[in-house]
Specification:
The structure is a homotetramer of 219-residue chains. With 219 residues, the first copy, chain A, is mainly alpha-helical. Chain A is built from nine helices and no strands. At the C-D interface, helix 6, helix 7, helix 8 and helix 9 of C face helix 6, helix 7, helix 8 and helix 9 of D. Chain B binds a DNA duplex (21 and 21 nucleotides) through helix 1 and helix 3.
Chain lengths: 219, 219, 219, 219
DNA sequence: AATGAATGAGTCTTCATTCAT
DNA sequence: AATGAATGAAGACTCATTCAT
């Protein structure tokens, strides 16, 4: 006779719609990944808004309900993609500069790693770019970007303190680096280069590092 | 009862649907401007996809017919906004460097003018950014971007030829400048700066010029 | 160049979704009525939840958009039906007792008018009944019911003050009257009478008045 | 891949889909009760249609399969709730008047018992009310109501035959009693009373008896 | 030039129900 | 007995666009 609700569905008043916290089986986790991967591709190719949930589930060949079993909404899925991607980018950069002592080399290797990641994950790079333009996702993207910038600032400040580079606003520098990286990877690796010569990911990474380091007039 | 979209009379040979070629009265031109201005604001604030034609005409307080009297589609309006904006940006930059002989100063003043334009037209800057992410508009935006880059390349090449700056790929440099400009104006003037100090348009422009010129290590 | 929004769509923060305030033409007003009438019938016959917006527009033979041109949601339409009906019921009762001096006769004629209204508007009666059971509409229905009870209480109190009827809680009496009216009109005029003899609206009205007046033991 | 609803093994000759006839263990019976109790609460609070099977099983913290192990459908569960409740109400009333000889007192005590039951089972009272408004359940509810009325009629007729109360249509009287009981318990015990004073279940029961007995004008 | 009305395919999302394990 | 996964029809609602007036 006792009515003991063991579990409330979703904490109400939650700012951003959270994922349905489910205990997933192996098969479930696989499905979830599959949805994320396929959706990433479609979002990158066709855009977030133009890609419908129906497109996604049809593309995978499952029923519509499957989507909502794993994600509470299309927006939540997208946010999830962004979060994962940002985490991965950060991890990649950290790994690349681990063990390097010279702050300037840390900066350079960080830039290179960032550029390579962008080159290797063109879909995710595009999603970042879109997310920045959409009211619903700016917030999500800024959290990661702030951390990203903070990471770079740390090394820039160290280099400045060590007298290795001129003393300029490190936050502005970090953003400059970000801008160059985005623009060049997009231009040379995304087919956006108007008449620009095709280049390999490594070449582009070198280019990014060089421009970030010297500007157009430096050295 | 069936709704069969009819082709509007278009300029022949025009690849994308063009505006209905109308001879507008003074009042008509004003209406058109009003639509463009209001739509620009809404597109920038809420996004292109989330903003419906109904939002636009309701916001102005006119009927739906008005919209389709001046534009053949929502896409056409957006394309028109982009085209006008790109033209305006270019004109602004050209005016800024007119009469300057030193190629390096031309570059710097061009950068400054570009950054100032972005700072003064934040809505349009956002629309550029979005347009790059949407399959339907990349083409439109690239035409202008290519010209924009070409302009910069011309001066960079001149500076290189004159031995005023090191000999590096001017196309890459031009793109780097673009990236820095976008990122910094966005960061410091669009509220996107995570903890970054607020700055005036002029300060930001100086910052952009400085970073583009020297990179993080130069000078 | 000026952007002058003449009219915002809907006051945001509005508790209940309000109707899209439109200037309707004669044809528009007719459509709206048609939708209300048809929906009333379907809601009464099949229930509010089981009746879909598609059912309604299909039944009338118009496109789905028509519905949302006139009503902002299915709920809003239903609320509108309730409001109109309650107003009509009240007007009917007021007209019926206008000019009667004796408070007891006012009560009796009010009851009779109420019962007749219910008998003549079985669909609306059913909707009232449903609305009381649905979280989303109780509030809407109670506003009217409170007024309805207040009206009755006024006359009951007058009769008590004049020593024409025993001094009992008039609010409780008013609710009792309501209960009898609902139950009997439903039973005898809605096909809900289990084995009960069919009766005319007038007969039922007499029955309601008689029972309300005397109870089972009185007189 | 196709989903073809299969007939669950039903008691043959059963008009509506009946519960799977299972021999339940002690634990099984408890689960079933738990489902019924929790569902009753949700149906009463949120409505039958708005409450999904998922809501119910999630609220209890079990899988979907559990639900369909004990009930063949959501409708069947609801019907079951109604049936049980009606049986319980009847039993309560019968017990209350057992051993009373005077038919008038039998009527009064029956009314009181009914009112008290409603007061003590507000959720079930609400479900009765809803069931009367939904095409799918009217039939189920009427069976019980008919019996309920028949019970009352029996005593009313006895009282009339004994000359203890005036000779009026006992069926109508019985329905009148029902209407008063529903309306007053709802008003005073369900928070539906617009400005009406809160009262205890016993007070309300007294009120109901008094009004049913005397009407508004009788002694 | 402009309006209110209308279209209907398409969007996101829900939900009763089934099934393999 | 019970679970997580899946189904897919159906629901409410949107929206670019067209049309009669």
């Amino acid at each position: 006779m006792s009515v003991v609700p063991r579990q409330t569905t979703n904490a109400p008043g939650d700012p951003a719609a959270a994922a349905p916290e489910r205990k997933l089986t192996a098969r479930g986790r696989e499905r979830r990944s599959q949805l994320i991967d396929y959706a990433t591709k479609r979002f990158a190719d066709d855009g977030f808004h133009p890609t419908s949930v129906a497109d996604i589930v049809d593309g995978i060949g499952v029923g519509k309900g499957v989507f909502y079993w794993y994600f509470s909404s299309k927006e939540e899925l997208f946010t999830e993609i962004l979060r994962t991607a940002q985490t991965d980018l950060r991890r990649t950069q950290r790994k690349a500069i681990g063990g390097i002592d010279d702050p300037v080399r840390r900066i350079e290797e960080g830039i290179r790693a960032g550029a390579l990641w962008m080159a290797n994950n063109p879909d995710l790079r595009r999603l970042f770019e879109f997310a920045r333009t959409d009211e619903s996702f700016v917030k999500a993207i800024r959290i990661g970007q702030r951390r990203h910038v903070a990471d770079a600032v740390e090394h820039l400040q160290a280099a400045i303190d060590a007298g290795l580079i001129p003393d300029r606003d490190p936050v502005a520098l970090a953003h400059g680096i970000l801008g160059v990286t985005n623009q060049l990877t997009m231009t040379y690796l995304d087919g956006a280069g108007g008449g620009a010569t095709k280049r390999s990911a490594e070449e582009v990474a070198d280019l990014v590092v060089s421009i970030c380091r010297n500007g157009f007039a430096g050295e």
